[in-house]
Design goal:
- The chain has 13 helices and two strands.
- With about 350 residues, the protein is an all-alpha fold.
- It has a two-stranded antiparallel ribbon.
- Helix 4 packs antiparallel against helix 7 and helix 6 runs antiparallel to helix 10.
- The N terminus is likely disordered.
- Bound molecules: benzoyl coenzyme A (BYC).
- Benzoyl coenzyme A binds next to helix 2, helix 6 and helix 9.
Length: about 350
């Protein structure tokens, strides 16, 4: 059974795998070298398969758990327009989860197995969804910053070497783009509203900024005092699963987002933030990796609540799954009888 974490078999630490060892391995190497797609029936190294199952399933779980912080505000949206937009967005996240579970299934893992890993707590999902949505402005901040960070991370995944994941990402990115825009538009309305509304927008930016930077994952190479370093990036980039590193994506996100905050008239909560004309990038302060580790370990402000709600939703949905199975069986019997 697939387990989370670093379990890439020894001897599969880099590609090329050793073309010539077997015709299949040589073909895999050739596909990588030509920057073409690996498809489900193609031979692939076990480590490649496991890395993809890990990343795609974590991504799917993130989309599913990610419905909760925003779903929390559907009944309290301040207008019918905002409610309709938010409902559409949350439904999109459910859809993303489903495309991604389907993409993971093409790698030979069952959806039941993946869902079980989420429910029993052995699977990870993005740290960002363990923070609370305290005010309506948080809905704007999530769209602007969280979906903004997600797009930055996911656009390169549209060029991932695994075909089903790359194709799922194309549609997801189109939808994420709408999500980001609605979030920014919401923030703009608040920033141009009453002083209280502007203060609410600033407070949301203050709380979501640093967790959004953490979404990109640990640093690429630096081993900080706390030992934070991306474990998988190097190999995943060789396999063309990841195309751009965690730090590069984080920097791109900061460079794009700081001027957006300025346009809103809001202040990014980082006293060290400054433009470096020589590098053409913003410099920013240190990330609190202790907080990240704590949240990923299950001790964030909302981890327990998110998991409790997901387990309850799964149990409450048991009758739907049972009914769908019974209907599928009945239909198969009818079709067999008619044939
Ligand atoms: N949170 O070696 P690294 C959305 C883990 S949903 C938790 O760099 P990798 C949305 C990492 O898993 C957006 N854990 O890993 C939905 C690894 O642990 P394991 C979700 C994190 O995989 C609803 C360890 O740290 N996006 O858009 O090469 C509403 C070492 O990291 C995090 C995706 O899932 C984190 N933030 O790179 C609104 C994108 N970061 O597995 C919006 C797809 C790292 O060894 N995923 N870890 O136990 C990716 O691009 C990559 O998996 C990551 C991490 C960049 C996230």
């Amino acid at each position: 059974m697939y387990t989370q974490g670093l379990d890439i078999p020894k001897g599969e630490t880099s590609i090329p795998l050793g073309s010539g060892e077997s015709p299949e391995a040589a073909r895999f190497d050739a596909i990588m070298a030509a920057d073409e797609k690996i498809e489900p029936k193609d031979w692939m190294p076990e480590g490649y398969r496991k890395t993809l199952i890990r990343q795609i399933s974590q991504h799917a779980h993130s989309e599913v758990i990610g419905m909760q912080p925003e779903g929390n505000w559907i009944t309290r949206a301040p207008s019918l327009r905002r409610k309709a937009i938010l409902m559409a967005k949350v439904q999109d996240e459910a859809g993303h989860g489903l495309y991604l579970y389907s993409a993971a299934e093409t790698l030979g893992v069952s959806r039941d197995e993946l869902v079980e890993q989420l429910l029993n707590g052995s699977a990870k999902y993005s740290s960002i969804f363990n923070y609370p949505t305290l005010t309506w402005a948080d809905i704007g901040a999530i769209g602007w910053l969280v979906d903004g960070a997600a797009i930055m991370n996911q656009i390169p995944l549209c060029r991932c070497s695994y075909g089903p994941y790359a194709r799922a990402m194309i549609r997801i990115c189109k939808e994420e783009s709408f999500h980001q825009r609605q979030g920014y538009e919401l923030m703009l309305s608040l920033a141009r509203g009453t002083p209280e509304q502007k203060a609410m927008a600033q407070d949301a930016l203050n709380r979501w900024w640093w967790p959004s930077l953490m979404m990109f994952g640990p640093h690429d190479t630096k081993t900080d005092a706390d030992g934070m370093k991306s474990q998988h990036s190097e190999q995943s980039m060789r396999w063309r699963i990841k195309r751009v590193s965690n730090d590069e994506l984080r920097q791109k996100f900061v460079d794009v987002t700081v001027p957006q905050a300025e346009y809103l008239g809001l202040t990014v909560p980082d006293p060290d933030l400054k433009w470096n004309a020589e590098t053409g990038h913003y410099e920013f302060g240190p990330i609190d990796w202790e907080e990240f580790k704590n949240v990923v370990a299950g001790n964030g402000p909302c981890n327990a609540k998110r998991m409790k709600q997901r387990r309850a939703a799964h149990e409450n949905g048991a009758w739907v799954r049972k009914a769908a199975l019974a209907y599928a069986e009945k239909r198969a019997k009818r079709q067999a009888a008619a044939a």
